[in-house]
Amino acid sequence: MKNLILAVVLFVVAFAPPLVVKADELKEKLSAGKRLFETTCNQCHPLADPLSNELSREMWVDRVQEMIGGTGALTPEQENLVVDYLTVNSTYKANCRGCHGLQEVEVVRHDRKGWVEVVKEEVAKKPGLLSIIDMKKVAEFLFINYGK
Ligand code: HEC
Ligand code: HEC
Which is nearest to 30 in space by CA: 146, 117, 112, 140? Predict the structure, then answer.
């Protein structure tokens, strides 16, 4: 039994650091995607135009190519960050309205922990609404945009 507990403790210790890194990585990637999106996609139309589109990741890949492909405006890696950011925006919009409007969400301000809690509570109202990874992404998206 002791050995089993030790094994579990070692397992947790061994795997805890990568999980922490993952959360930071997600934050940095989404923040970078937002910055790149806001500086690259505002030149011909308001940012609200792309933001109001709810598309799948594949469709965002195509859309970003249509818009800036071949112009050298972004590296492929930067394009990916923009696509990821816009995909999370779409996930949020598609799943967080229906019971109430998005404006009801967007007047609220929370710190990161607060948004993680809100997303958990909201998904509990409709189990299966978002996968665990989408819950993390949406919470981070909300913190980046409506944080305090
Ligand atoms: C060089 C100018 C230019 C840049 C830069 C640009 N766009 Fe566009 N975009 C347009 C034009 C012109 C339209 C309108 C054509 C149309 O109706 O589809 C448009 C339309 C769109 C639409 C459809 C809008 C709607 O209301 O349905 C999306 C989505 C979009 N752009 C996303 C982006 C994204 C994301 C970026 C940054 C990666 C970007 N655009 C950068 C020129 C640009
Ligand atoms: C199954 C229905 C349902 C879904 C789906 C839903 N909500 Fe809600 N939400 C509610 C209800 C009910 C309330 C409380 C009554 C109200 O404000 O309309 C609420 C309230 C809120 C509030 C205000 C809470 C406060 O304390 O000020 C926020 C923020 C919120 N929701 C965010 C979200 C987000 C983010 C999502 C998507 C992950 C989401 N909701 C999806 C039902 C839902």
Answer: 140
In the reported structure, the alpha carbon of residue 130 is separated from the centroid of ligand 1 by a whole-number distance in angstroms of 28
Cα 70 from Cα 73, distance rounded (Å): 8
**Relative to the alpha carbon of 52, which ligand is closest?**
1
What DSSP designation does 101 have?
A: -
Instruction: Check if 98 has its Cβ closer than 6 Å to any atom of ligand 2.
Output: yes
Q: What is the pLDDT of residues 16-58, one digit of tens each?
A: 555 556 888 999 999 999 999 999 999 999 999 999 999 999 9
Query: What are the residue ranges spanned by the domains of the chain?
Result: 21-146
pTM metric for this prediction? 0.89
The verdict on the CB of residue 105 being under 6 Å from ligand 1 is no
Distance CA 9, CA 53 (A): 46
- 73 CA to middle of ligand 2, Å? 38
